[in-house]
Amino acid sequence: MHFQYTEEQLMIQDVARRIAAEKIAPSAEHHDQTGEFPLENIRILGENGLMGIEVPAEYGGAGMDPISYVLAMVEVAKADAAHSTIMSVNNSLFCNGILKFGSEAQKQKYVRAIAEGKEIGAFALTEPQSGSDATAMRCKAVKQDDGSFIINGKKSWITSGPVARYIVLFAMTDASKGARGITAFMIDTSKPGFHRGKTEPKLGIRASATCEIEFTDYRVEAEDVLGQEGEGFKIAMGVLDAGRIGIASQAIGISMAAYEATLDYVKERKAFGAPIGSFQMTQAKIADMKCKLDASLLLTLRAAWAKGETEKNGGRFSTEAAVAKLTASEAAMWISHQAVQIHGGMGYSKEMPLERYFRDAKITEIYEGTSEIQRLVIARNETGLR
Questions:
Q1: 170 with 134: CB under 8 angstroms?
Q2: What is the pLDDT of residue 1?
Q3: Distance (Å, rounded) from C-alpha 206 to C-alpha 360?
Q4: Where does the Acyl-CoA oxidase/dehydrogenase middle domain start and stop, copy by copy (predicted)?
Q5: How many CB atoms neighbour CB 314 within 10 A?
Q6: pLDDT tens across 118-139, in order?
């Protein structure tokens, strides 16, 4: 493994860092307080290739590698986690699945608009009664004589659902087959039969709009089936592997922001006549924060490298992605917690961004597979037991 980034990787990192500093960070507090979707900033990210980092140029993307994606995601998440959530869904969950399983027509129609930041994409797997148990879904797609499908049902906790133009949807086409009875579809939200519920009031990542969506006799034509009928569960699990690298990167960005703010604070804040960073208990916290942060970054870069290798040579990178996501998300929660504690009352105040980092960090342990699910994935892959 090489520990030096390429010139192209550093370039995309610099682009992300510049946009994060000039556009995202100054507006982060406003978007967090209001919950307003940052459409203008997302357009800028798209115009600079950050909404389709791994998307080939012929489909409107930057045509770069998974390492580049991690570096860019970290920079955006460091400025504001909500922006990085939108970026992650567009890159990992939406574009990635279509590039791997979609037809040429689907790539041209759906990927280009999202990669260029002209439209917003979403990924609809979770339902009100089925979260971690995706095979318990009730949203149904009934095949018609002409090859089209009629969809009825609900999906919940859909990131970017309130603003998405296109959605990758998973619905049950044959309940008797269980996981093999799930099919993936491309959804155009401008068509009749699609309905959005209320935007969810969330603890963190508040500018990342989330809602329930519902389908009432929504018709999907045969050409908008993603992959093959019955392949939906396989597609979803493969896409989530990539998504977990995105969330690990987001967690690292949150951790970096909290850590760097704390490092500055312990050098300046004095108690009992000395900087609090000179106290052994504070130093122990700083050392542990640094170790967890570095471990998270290296494991996430390993997962991104593994993703790149499997794309060239085949195989899966499920374990590497789960290890990265589990480690980085729990590190983000711990580091942001310690950052608030070290800052004391100021860490608890909305006058500083520490409490936002703390609120934002929590979701990284939940979405795209909870920490409990990551542990199951890792253990099952290691033991071969189910």
A1: yes
A2: 58
A3: 8
A4: 122-217
A5: 7
A6: 999 999 999 998 877 877 899 9
Task: Please tell me the CATH superfamily of domain 233-383, with its number.
Answer: Butyryl-CoA Dehydrogenase, subunit A, domain 3 (1.20.140.10)
pTM for this entry: 0.96
Given 75, 116, 119, 368, the catalytic residue: 368
- Are 53 and 11 a contacting pair, CB within 8 Å? no
Classify 122-229 by CATH class: mainly beta
Residue 369 one-letter amino acid? G
CA distance readout (Å), 214 to 63, 68, 150, 255: 34, 35, 13, 36
368 is annotated as an active-site residue: yes
Give the model confidence (pLDDT) of 215-227 as tens digits.
999 999 999 999 9
Phi, psi of 201 (to 5 degrees): -85, 110
- Domain borders along the chain are 7-119, 122-229, 233-383
Question: What confidence tens digit (pLDDT) does each residue in 319-344 have?
Answer: 999 999 999 999 999 999 999 999 99
Q: What is the DSSP letter of 144?
A: P
* Domain boundaries 7-119, CATH class: mainly alpha
